[in-house]
């Protein structure tokens, strides 16, 4: 006989128990047996059955996955999940339980309630005799504890008392004496006790406290920086990024954890994520310091440094280091660098094309679809998949990639962590923590685990890197004194006076090549650039920030444009939608309560921001009454997203919900655009965008608060009414 299997799944509805709700799925397996010589066995006489006659047998099994439950039921389910065929439950629980319980509470339930045979009410155990009960329960608990220590050993790092670890050790001594588990816990306790209390101990940092005696922070020396080879710089940045990313504790990224970081009592919350952000901002500021730090540089010399950083970014791309790659791109798009018109004109065309291709990786189109797909594509690949539309760049890329392959060592992938932080914060905001009956919504945790699993996969891939630290570069990197926003802007003005900065802002800022190309077109500029430097934002955001805010910056840095120039786009007379002027207004996620720029029309943001990216053009204030050019042909309607657009209702805070204005939005609209149109509709000053926040009403006691530069179309909850409130910031 030969066999083949075909599996189908069928929704089996829900099962409700005391304190728990389960989703039931029926798994139907069809087994086909091809009978050649088994005719008699099948009931046939002689050769009555054809040689390829098949016998179909069906086997149906039930899969129960807990949907919601009390903490006690969720912990009990750790012991029964395998019996219910919910094989991923333990991993999901361990990765997300910190959002609704403490390690101590879970451990006490697991060991005291279910680990005590005399008081255990575990249903599966009650039907067994005493000896079998002890063996089954011991195996189940050992399996859960082993998974806990394997996947989340940091949960037990509670200096100086280590209460949970000592409780676990006491349980093992009494119930599993001299076991491998007991030895493992003892070793873990010794390891924790021998390490420093600070969770960030040993992390790469750029603070002055890391400098050896006698060293001081210094402004970058361009000659010393130029002495480092491009691939060496990229490798060292990758080395530092890998060390930090591998140490990220996944639950630190959960929206319910990370969104609490700006409260005063949480200044030490999520240290592993903060360390990654600090490194990201350090790379960005290092780029700016090397370009502007030396006043004596000539235009051509400064252009060479920009070219060098683009080459370094390309090397980061080859190394699949998307964190430093994005940091460099962000720095080159910052105010003080972007405005260097003459300097950019001296950058070679080939390198500008390379820069354009690197920038396109982080295009915000379709919720950063390009970077997301590329990240997942390369997550487990041995080497980078490089494509270039420019032949010369393609040759260089393939040559460098071949050198990497010749070394015979696989590469990992370092992601831009802000993407995952944004996803998790939006999930936390959109989904309820508890459902009817006060049960913990575990479906929410399953959704969060989908993101956490990606982080873990990328962390595992980082073990493939084989990089050796170069202490000369690392010490140089740590010695750099980072320029403040005002300092960098002042130096930029000194390098190229205001009179020379009438650079034409294009209607779309997807690439620097498009910006630079306008320098050679001789297009007239219709309004003068604004040259006031922006105020710097307070470190760490406002203490009064909403816990649902999605900004992830621990160190605020300007990512907006001060040269906000309006130009007339090239369009045909027949296209009335394009007659309005286009305003290039770089926006980014910002903390509520942070200072906004005055007199520049710019928005505040951070270099490391999950919601920020390469910006698309928006209709200017004079054109707010007309329909945006991105409106699809299909007529949009209220309460349904269709064809990339929809209609939302926006009411003012304090007024009755029936007093609303209908606003048309598309999949290209961001918070500043929608807020501005809503203000105009309500006969308010449209320039006061920074003073308002836009929230979606989810229920009577639940709101969805959008990040400063979020895409409203993709960020909104499409399963509830499209009702929004425009509220003045506190």
Q: Could you explain how this protein is built, in words?
A:
Helix 2 (89-96) crosses helix 20 (442-461) and helix 6 (163-175) packs antiparallel against helix 7. This protein has helices spanning 71-80, 89-96, 103-113, 123-126, 130-151, 163-175, 180-194, 222-226, 230-246, 255-258, 271-292, 299-318, 322-332, 335-338, 341-345, 349-360, 369-378, 391-406, 417-430, 442-461, 471-479, 485-495, 512-517, 671-681, 712-715; strands at 2-17, 20-34, 54-69, 434-435, 439-441, 566-567, 582-583, 618-619, 645-652, 660-666, 692-699, 702-705, 723-728. It is of the alpha+beta class and 730 residues long. It is globular. Helix content is 39%, strand content 12%. Mean pLDDT is 74; it is low at 119-128, 198-214, 499-607 and 609-633. It has 25 helices and 13 strands. Among the domains are: 1-33 and 54-69, no CATH class; 71-117 and 134-194, Up-down Bundle (Son of sevenless (SoS) protein, Chain S, domain 1); 230-490, Ras guanine-nucleotide exchange factors catalytic domain (Son of Sevenless (SoS) protein, Chain S, domain 2, Orthogonal Bundle), CATH 1.10.840; 640-728, Phosphatidylinositol 3-kinase Catalytic Subunit, Chain A, domain 1 (Ubiquitin-like (UB roll), Roll). Keywords: Guanine-nucleotide releasing factor. One of its GO terms (cellular component) is plasma membrane. This is RGL1 protein.
């Amino acid at each position: 006989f030969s066999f083949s299997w075909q599996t189908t799944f069928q929704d089996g509805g829900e099962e409700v128990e005391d304190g728990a709700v389960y989703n039931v799925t029926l798994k139907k397996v069809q087994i086909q047996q091809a009978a050649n010589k088994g005719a008699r066995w099948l009931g046939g006489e002689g050769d009555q059955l054809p040689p390829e006659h098949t016998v179909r047998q069906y086997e149906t099994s039930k899969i129960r996955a807990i949907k919601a439950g009390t903490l006690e039921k969720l912990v009990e389910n750790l012991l029964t999940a395998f019996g219910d065929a919910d094989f991923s439950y333990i991993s999901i629980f361990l990765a997300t339980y910190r959002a609704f319980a403490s390690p101590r509470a879970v451990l006490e339930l697991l060991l005291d309630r279910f680990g005590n045979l005399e008081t255990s009410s575990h249903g599966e155990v009650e039907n067994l005799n005493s000896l079998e009960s002890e063996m089954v329960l011991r195996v189940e608990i050992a399996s859960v504890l082993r998974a806990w220590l394997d996947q989340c050993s940091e949960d037990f790092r509670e200096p100086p008392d280590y209460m949970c670890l000592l409780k676990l050790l006491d349980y093992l001594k009494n119930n599993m004496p001299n076991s491998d588990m007991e030895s493992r816990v003892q070793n873990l306790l010794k390891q924790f006790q021998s390490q420093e209390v600070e969770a960030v101990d040993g992390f790469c940092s750029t603070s002055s406290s890391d400098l050896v005696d006698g060293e001081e922070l210094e402004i970058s020396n361009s000659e010393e920086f130029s002495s480092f080879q491009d691939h060496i710089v990229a490798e060292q940045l990758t080395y530092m990024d890998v060390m930090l990313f591998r140490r990220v504790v996944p639950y630190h990224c959960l929206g319910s954890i990370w969104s609490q970081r700006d409260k005063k009592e949480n200044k030490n919350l999520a240290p592993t994520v903060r360390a990654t952000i600090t490194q990201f901002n350090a790379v960005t500021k290092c780029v700016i310091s090397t370009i502007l730090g030396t006043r004596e540089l000539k235009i051509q010399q400064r252009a060479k440094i920009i070219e060098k950083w683009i080459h370094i970014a390309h090397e980061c791309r080859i190394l699949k280091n998307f964190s430093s790659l994005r940091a460099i791109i962000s720095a080159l798009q910052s105010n003080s660098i972007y405005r260097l018109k003459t300097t950019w004109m001296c950058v070679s065309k080939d390198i500008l094309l390379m820069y354009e291709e690197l920038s396109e990786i982080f295009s915000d189109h379709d919720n950063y679809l390009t970077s997301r797909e590329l990240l997942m594509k390369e997550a487990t690949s041995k080497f980078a998949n490089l494509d270039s539309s420019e032949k010369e760049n393609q040759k260089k890329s393939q040559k460098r990639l071949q050198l990497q392959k010749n070394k015979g060592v696989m590469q990992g992938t370092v992601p831009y962590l802000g993407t995952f932080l944004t996803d998790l914060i939006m999930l936390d905001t959109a989904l309820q923590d508890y459902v009817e009956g006060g049960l913990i919504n575990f479906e929410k945790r399953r959704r969060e685990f989908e993101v956490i699993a990606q982080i873990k996969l990328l962390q595992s891939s980082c073990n493939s890197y084989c990089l050796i630290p170069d202490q000369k570069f690392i010490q140089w990197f740590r010695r750099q004194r980072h320029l403040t926003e005002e300092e960098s802007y002042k130096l930029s003005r000194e390098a190229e006076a205001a009179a020379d900065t009438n650079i034409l802002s294009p209607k779309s800022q997807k690439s620097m090549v498009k910006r630079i190309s306008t320098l050679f077109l001789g297009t007239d500029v219709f309004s003068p650039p604004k040259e006031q430097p922006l105020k710097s934002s307070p470190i760490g955001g406002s203490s009064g920030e909403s816990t649902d805010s999605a900004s992830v910056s621990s160190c605020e840095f300007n990512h907006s444009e001060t040269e906000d120039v309006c130009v007339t786009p090239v369009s045909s007379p027949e296209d009335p939608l394009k007659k309005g002027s286009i305003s290039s207004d770089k926006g980014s996620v910002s903390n509520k309560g942070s200072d906004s720029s005055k007199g520049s029309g710019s928005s505040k943001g951070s270099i490391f921001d999950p919601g920020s990216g390469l910006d698309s053009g928006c209709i200017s204030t004079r054109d707010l009454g007309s329909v945006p050019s991105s409106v699809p042909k299909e007529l949009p309607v209220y309460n349904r997203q269709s064809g990339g657009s929809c209609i939302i209702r926006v009411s003012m805070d304090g007024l009755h919900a029936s007093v609303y204005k209908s606003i048309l939005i598309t999949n290209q609209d961001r918070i500043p655009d929608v807020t501005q149109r809503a203000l105009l509709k309500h006969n308010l000053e449209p320039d006061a965008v920074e003073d308002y926040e836009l929230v979606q009403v989810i229920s009577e006691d639940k709101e969805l608060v959008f990040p400063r530069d979020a895409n409203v179309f993709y960020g909104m909850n499409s399963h509830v009414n499209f009702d929004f409130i425009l509220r003045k910031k506190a």
